[in-house]
Amino acid sequence: MMHDATIHPSALSDILIKNAYLVDPIQGISGERVDLCVSNGVIVDAVSEHAIVIDADGALTLAGGIDSHTHVCGTKVNFGRYMSPEDMRAGRTARRGVMYPTSGYTVPTTYGNSYRYSKMGYTTLLEGAMAPLEARHTHEEFAATPLQDMAANALFDGNWNLFEAAQQHDYRQAAAVIAWVLRAVKGFGVKLTNPGGSEAWGFGDDLASLDESVPHWDVTPREIIDTTIKANEYLDLPHSVHLHCNNLGMPGNYTTTLETMDIPSALNDRRQTLYMTHIQYHSYGGSTWRTFRSESLAIANAVHNHPHICVDMGQVMFGRTMTMTADGPMEFRLYTLHHNKWSNHDVELETGSGVIPVYYDRKNLVNSIMWAIGLEMALLIKNPWQCLLTTDNPNGAPFVKYPEIIALLMSAAYRDEQIATVHPSLGKRAPLPTLDRELSFEEIAVMTRAGQARALGLIEEGKGHLSLDAAADIAIYPIWPESMDPAAEYEDIISGFSQTLYTIKDGVIVCRDGKVVQKIENKTFWSDAYVPPQYDVEKNPRFVEMFDRFYSVQFRNYAVQDEYVRRGHPLVRTGKWDTEGGG
Amino acid sequence: MMRVTLTMKPRSNPFLPIEAEQIIPENFIGSRQVMVYEGNKEHSLLNICVIRRDGNVNTPENVSLILRGDWSRVKRVGEYMSSGTIVVEGDIGMHCGNFMRAGKIEIRGNADAWLGREMRGGVIVCHGDAGDYCGSGYRGEKRGMRGGSIEVMGNVGEFAAEYLTGGSVAVHGNAGCFAGVEMRGGYLTIDGDAILPAANMVAGECVVKGRVLEMVPTFERVGEENGMIVYHGDIANRGKGRLIVRSTSRTE
Q1: CB-based contact B140 A340, cutoff 8 Å
Q2: Which of A281, A218, A215 is CA-nearest to residue A245?
Q3: The predicted structure's pLDDT at residue B237
Q4: Rounded CA gap, A411 and A409, in Å?
Q5: Mean pLDDT throughout A410-433?
Q6: Measuring CA to CA, which of A122, A225, B110, B150 is 20 to 30 A from A539?
Q7: CB contact under 8 A, B139 and A86
């Protein structure tokens, strides 16, 4: 693990950013020139005259970017690295100054991920899926992704203890299991990937609907999702349940997605109650690949009718990439289409995973429709707080494509230009060519940082906004909104969002004109949820017996030791145990 | 016609590898400085060898590079070469003729591994033996050599012509294990013996005129041609390639 980051004292001095064109949707600022003062890593009122002065001269200034669903660390990312040595030929950079050498394009090295995200102004990342049993490796890679604060969603989609609780509709017991696992593996939120389906895949099966029982268990995906959401809200975790719906990537799967949206009722007034990730992969109509079409209108309508649901795009961009998910059966289906190398993996009692490389071809009708659906979701969903910008990196495309997606959303002209290069039948299967909405800088700011901060519950931690006392995570882009028209000058939008003038993380200038200039250390957010003693699973003989009987690791060896999470930042939650008489 | 003779100087550590991707005919026209890496140090080529030029031309087609002395530790000679000729008087190191597009490389001695890897065109003739992965794709690459021809007078190591996609590879000696594995096109002929040739092939043609010491079982025998047995396969990979052998250890 790397612990060699020593910050030079000069890097810790105060910073004064003059004439910043600030867009901060959480504060309700939709573009005005302000001076920002930074001291001791936070935004302050005033700074001393010794402060470093940056004259932004009207350059677009946003809070540090947040990616609410990405795969950058952990065992399956690493498996993607070592099953595709050809990927390491691309994106090679030599050691330079404080930068380590990097390589890789679809699954770069950890420093490659960190540097490229920082270059784009990102300062916080959520690893979308961490197998609890393999959490140590994820945390080790977090330590080597130093320029971003990290958090990891722990996978619960095949967790036997959670199944037992869901079978009995006992959300308090489910809450106790979730709280224990999150504390043990230093996880941040609850990820359900194809709930029940990954477990069924252990028996060579998948679940086709929400009401089909998991083999050998009298429990359905609907019950798992419902119980987990209630447990999640009972614990009052910072983030909602993070759901990858059943039937990902199947033509006609949008009905499953619509049914899933009806499961939860609004249980939280600070944020959404259910986060549905990479919605693009779940908005497919038709019944076979030949009749495949976009159902983005139905899904977007449902999102409007469920204001307590938040989705992310999962945008597909053309070119080479790597798919990786805990959804084992889906990756196998993908393998039968591509006949390329593939991997599947089963994590005992918890989850599974699969990895395969893919190529999205703009001349292919299915791929063209997939590309269109992601954009349609962002354009059709009126409230940008409900649809966040992701590519499910690297499943839809590597995250370095974000600037292109921003340009596609801000410029109808650029979209038309791109539509002309894809499969000519696109217009018959997807409504994208008829959409003329062009997003504003404020909406883009919501979709790339403010919305994520709210969805992840990190506003209180000072993320996603630049109010007083907020974390000084700042991105200054070489874009001058006062004197440009993003709809016409989309090429400047792409180049501007690709490389910041300055990326500031916790009050330290870490990246300048695309070059990382400072080594720093990050922190790892994790959820420390209270559970009353009578619900403590460690004292539950059934839980301990199940653990000793089925796991290949000892109960006492399961938890991630503190040396793996040196800079852990627990978010303490008391939950609703007292108020609802559960305690 | 211009002859450029590069004579290797004695080196204090002759085992230290040299990376010399700039040694291609186009770089010897005019007075461009050619740089190479010896270990982790970058040097001018003048520090490594004596350069003698006979004649003067403007086009790389008329440049002939002669490599003299011990070049057995020099990698990537002729990478992305697109015209002219290179003659190696002794042995050559790994990755000779990487991604070569046109021109000719003649090796009078032996070649190390990865000779002509992912080659797209041109001619390579090796009078001695070639190492492993002769005419193949690099790690993880699904399309190997795509065009041109490689002729090896001696033996080749393991995985010759792996992922061969176009062009031809001719081996006059024996091949090691897995020659022509994962072939996607092109022609591979082996005059000597081979072990497990053409496993998992999808398309293309592999001819073994010597003995096949071990045969992959998933090939379908379809007939005989000029005293040779013709197989189709690899069925395990839904392949439509042709494997033609004189004799195998396989009993039908």
Answers
A1: no
A2: A281
A3: 84
A4: 6
A5: 96
A6: A225
A7: yes
By C-alpha distance, the chain B residue nearest A82 is: B140
Mean pLDDT score across all residues of chain A = 94
Beta-sheet pairing, B41-44 with B49-54: unpaired
pTM, two decimals, is 0.91
Cα separation of B158 and A482, whole Å?
Answer: 64
Residue A419 contacts by C-beta under 8 Å, 6 or more apart in sequence?
A372, A426, A427, A432, A433
Task: Please count the other Cβ atoms lying within 10 Å of the Cβ belonging to residue A96.
Answer: 10
- How many CA atoms are closer than 13 Å to the CA of A381, on its beta-carbon side? 31
Quote the pLDDT of residue B126: 97
Phi and psi angles of residue A167, each rounded to the nearest 5 degrees, phi first: -55, -40
- Please report how the helices A75-83 and A135-143 are oriented relative to each other, as an axis angle in degrees rounded to 10: 80
Report residue A362 as tokens: 């703009």
Q: Is residue B88 within 8 Å of residue B67, measured between CB atoms? A: yes
Q: How many Cβ atoms sit within 10 Å of the Cβ of residue A226?
A: 19
- Domains, in order of start, for chain A: 9-63+460-516 (2.30.40.10)
Listed residue (A129, A95, A92) closest to A109, CA to CA? A92
**By the CB < 8 Å criterion, does B224 face chain A?**
no
Q: Do B139 and A85 touch (CB under 8 A)?
A: yes
Residue A501 has pLDDT above 80, yes or no: yes
Q: Which of A83, A86, A339 has its CB closest to that of B138?
A: A86
- A504 pLDDT more than 90: yes
Helices (H), A120-170: 135-143, 160-167
Which residues lie closer than 8 Å to A248 by C-beta, 6 or more apart? A194, A278, A281, A282, A325, A327, A330
